[in-house]
Design a protein that fits this description.
- With 344 residues, this protein is an alpha+beta fold.
- Among the domains are: 2-74; 187-344, Histidine kinase-like ATPase, C-terminal domain (Heat Shock Protein 90, 2-Layer Sandwich), CATH 3.30.565.10.
- It contains seven helices and seven strands; from the N terminus they run αααβααββαββαββ.
- The chain has helices at 7-26, 31-137, 142-182, 190-200, 202-205, 226-243, 303-314, and strands at residues 186-189, 211-215, 221-224, 252-259, 266-273, 318-323, 329-336.
- The strands form two sheets. It has a five-stranded mixed beta sheet with strand order 2-4-5-7-6, with helices on one face. Strands 1-3 form a two-stranded antiparallel ribbon.
- Strand 4 (252-259) and strand 5 form a beta hairpin.
- It is rod-shaped.
- The two termini are 60 Å apart.
- This is histidine kinase.
């Protein structure tokens, strides 16, 4: 439709041609100048037509480019959505794997006291049968009875102690597992809860000879999400076991809790180790998803990323890291004593 733009110009040229004929009769000496002017006007119109055609092509190319750009944008948004979904699925799988490792470790740990209790009960049952047989045969002596009482006392003490140990492990694991699964908000005595979490981690700590010390105000109560606390504490401890002691030597981890920095409503949780430390060039990347220096050797690159998300998203706090190669690493987490409501 671009030709419609020059209808007036075409009409003006036709009129000019007619005027040129009349001018040739009236003033022939002006005809060359008039023809030159008319020719310039025609060239101008042709150039304008060319520019309009170029503009039409450019507009068509721009429209096509915009369509392609929109298509690529939609593809990128779709790919980003899929990537986020996949990342979330991997993070959830990592959390489930952590819980599965906890289950396996606690199950293995419970086997020891239960096995001892069963062995003691079996031994006591055998001694009871033997004593009953001697009693029925009328061959029981005071020495036999005293030895039986000694055996019964020792075995019942062992049975009771190991059953209590198993009960403690089951109680600690049950609460930690429920918190991990439900993400329920509740008040907890923080020091006791940290001890429960660390008890559930003993199957991972004991074989390598690692020890953990806890310093926490005994009456400190927080209104928060213990499942998040359990997950981040587990991930920090397991991260230390994976990365801080590559030479296999036993180490010491410390968990320190204080209140009052910067105010009485803020809890500071510091998890530190005396391991090999983190190189300075890695500090900016350790909380990024899938960043690990031990890929294929026990590192998934998600442990600290999950910790960061839990601290910032669930606990509404902050986390920082301080580390010097060869001098250990300390993660400092500051979070509200009472987690703010979402509406706030």
């Amino acid at each position: 439709m671009s030709f419609n733009l020059f209808a007036a110009e075409d009409q003006a040229i036709e009129q000019a041609q007619g005027l040129g004929k009349r001018l040739a009769e009236a003033a022939p000496d002006l005809v060359p100048e008039f023809d030159s002017l008319l020719d310039s006007f025609r060239r101008s119109i042709r150039e304008q037509r060319r520019l309009v055609r170029v503009s039409d092509r450019l507009q068509a190319q721009i429209a096509s480019a915009n369509q392609e750009l929109e298509r690529r944008r939609q593809e990128a948004e779709t790919a980003l959505t899929r990537l986020r979904d996949a990342q979330e699925a991997i993070v959830q799988a990592e959390k489930l794997a952590s819980l599965g490792a906890l289950v396996a470790g606690v199950a293995h740990e419970i086997n020891t006291p239960v096995g001892i209790a069963v062995s003691c009960a079996s031994h006591l049952a055998d001694q009871t049968v033997a004593l009953r047989r001697r009693s029925e045969e009328g061959q029981i002596s005071r020495g036999d009875f005293d030895r039986y009482l000694t055996t019964a006392t020792d075995t019942t003490d062992l049975i009771l102690a190991n059953c209590q140990r198993a009960a403690q492990l089951i109680t600690a694991f049950k609460q930690v597992a429920v918190d991990r699964a439900s993400a329920e908000r509740r008040t907890v005595r923080l020091g006791a809860y940290i001890s429960e979490v660390l008890t559930s981690l003993q199957p991972k700590l004991r074989p390598a000879g690692h020890t953990v010390t806890v310093a926490c105000p005994p009456d400190l109560v927080v209104d928060s999400f213990p499942g998040a606390l359990s997950q981040l504490l587990t991930n920090l401890v397991m991260n230390a076991l994976t990365h801080a002691y590559p030479d296999g030597r036993p180490g010491t981890l410390t968990v320190t809790v204080t209140v009052g920095q910067p105010d009485e409503e803020t809890v500071r949780l510091v998890v530190a180790d005396d391991g090999c430390g983190i190189p300075a060039e890695h500090h900016a990347a350790i909380f990024e998803p899938f960043f690990t220096t031990r890929r294929g050797s026990g590192g998934s690159g998600l442990g600290l990323h999950i910790v960061h998300n839990l601290v910032a998203g669930v606990l509404k706090g902050t986390i920082t890291v301080a580390s010097v190669p060869g001098a250990g690493t300390a993660f400092t987490i500051d979070f509200p004593r009472r987690t703010p409501d979402e509406a706030a």
